[in-house]
Amino acid sequence: MKTTERSTARRPRAGEVRLEGQPVSSGVAIGHAAIAHDPDPPPIDTTRRDCDPAHERARLHEAITRSTAQLRRLHDRLALLPEDGQVEIGSLLEVYRRMLGPSRLRRGIEARLGHGMLAEAAVQLETEALAAFMLSPPGRPAPEGEDAVAARRRAGEFREIGRRLVRNLSGTPYRSFSAIPDGAILVAEQLRPADAALIDPSRIAAVVTEEGGSTGHTAILLRALGIPAVLATHGLLARIGRRTRLVVDGTTGQVILRPSTRTAAAARVAVAAYARERQALGRLRRLPARLSSGEVLTLQANLEIPAELPMIAQSGAAGIGLLRSEFLFMNAGTLPDEARQESLYRPLIEAMSGDPVTIRVVDWGSEKNSDALAQAGIGAGSDVNPALGVRGIRLLLRHRALLETQFAAILRAATAGPVRVLLPMVSSPAELHAAREVYARVGRRLRRKGVDIPDPLPPLGIMIETPAAALMADVLAQEAEFLAIGTNDLTMYTLAADRAATDVAGLYDPLHPAVLRLVRLAADAGLRQRRPVSLCGEMASDPLAVPLMVGLGVRSFSMHASAVPHVKRAVRAAAMDDCRRMACRALEAADGPEVSAMLMAYAATLRHAGDG
């Protein structure tokens, strides 16, 4: 995000400077800056080809041994962190540990050493090559939207483990936060994910960096630790010195340098108000998601990577409404087999302690990156428009062995707790029928082998992501056991607008009446066929939109874990009659902005009623 320095006319006094960064972890803090510099390793000569391969391999193996020991020590420190931070960081450290083992990364580095490269150069070149492959695979479109976020995260994993190896090869020391005074605000050019394991949230008031982004591992880790944080605050280090006083707002992304007396007083009020807000939302965790008129809804959480599990437990979500299984394939060197997949599903199901888990089979297309799938010839096409190509259930039915393996792993793991299985991008009854035949056949095969699986098989449902699926929902609901409306793709296909495409992003509006009418069709079909209907797009995370969705007939929502308490608060303030009236008006509206204005007016009415 672009850094802005506000005009003197808007500053309470000379000397106060306001910068804007990317908010990644909510909260407000005031304190003095403690600048943590990260020593740079020496320059690497990537042109040398006269090194002794045996000597460089020995150096590499020593660096791998040292890196593994460091990761183990970092893992041992996790007991000092909050429980959710322990699981979040622990999962990431396990990813790093696997990369140091028999992985594609290690094989690639050792192959480069055979050409006489310096070990540091081989590590740097190979990690950058793998990161580039994740971000822009040759012969395939670059990933967009959520896929681009995941690709950047995977690329960052390769680069991070590469940096660790280079540091150990060159003997470059790591920075330490032990000398930072209690209550200080940690300021750095960049914060690495593994650095988060060194942060004591009881001592450091907030984190601000010049670089970084809101979707990377560092941001996820800081949210898990509960520390107010703003990343990508460009120009920060040039404007501050040691012990410069700062105000950090992790909700808005604002960082104030040398705050005036008035600004500092307002910040202290905001710190207290945020503490009260967290206490209030914390109390909601144990309360039901019940409308003020008495109707009970179901609020669940989405899970993209296992590291998000502790945030789900903390949110008070009633289960996992959408487990995206793509994480299994993102960093895998080979396709995960039945046993490997079961070993990942089972602990997630067990961790929910009886709350349901909905697992979506892999939703893949040519715009996504996976070395394992590409090597197997799956999803490696070069569709001109991946969104309209072979993806979702279309791809799985072309590669049925992949679908059968995933079905079998889910069925094996389903003995650990209640599970539902979700099919992506179904647009016709024929696709659902074909997938159900595969599902039943896998179940029969496992029973013949004496494998313990649920009887009957877990419910098999479909995503409603295309206008065709919404229009045919009454027919699809006769065979699908539940429906899940994915408003992100449904909006894109309905309005012919990709929010990742700059030229048409302004046309992408999930509140457009055309989208709302399709949601209503799907919800009505579920009601008539007595099938559960959930909503799991970004709209489910919007406290303003959820009452409208309730009025349209949706009773179950799955969202990012951090949104659960905010949505629950909105739900408990709303009444069913108001929700239905809003739905009737929204369906007759001319456009999305009209619907948005109506929702904001309703929210304001509720706030005024609460103040009264």
From TrEMBL:
Keywords from UniProt, A to Z, are:
Cytoplasm, Kinase, Magnesium, Metal-binding, Phosphotransferase system, Sugar transport, Transferase, Transport
Extract the Pfam families matched here: PEP-utilisers_N (PF05524), PEP-utilizers (PF00391), PEP-utilizers_C (PF02896)
Q: Where in the cell is it found?
A: Cytoplasm
Enumerate the spans annotated as Phosphotransferase system enzyme I N-terminal domain: 20-134
Q: What is the name listed in the Swiss-Prot or TrEMBL entry for this protein?
A: Phosphoenolpyruvate-protein phosphotransferase
Coiled-coil segments on the chain, per record: none
Q: Where is the composition biased (Basic and acidic residues)?
A: 1-19
| Organism (species) | Komagataeibacter melomenusus
Q: What is its EC number?
A: 2.7.3.9
Give the reactions, separated by semicolons, that this protein catalyses: L-histidyl-[protein] + phosphoenolpyruvate = N(pros)-phospho-L-histidyl-[protein] + pyruvate
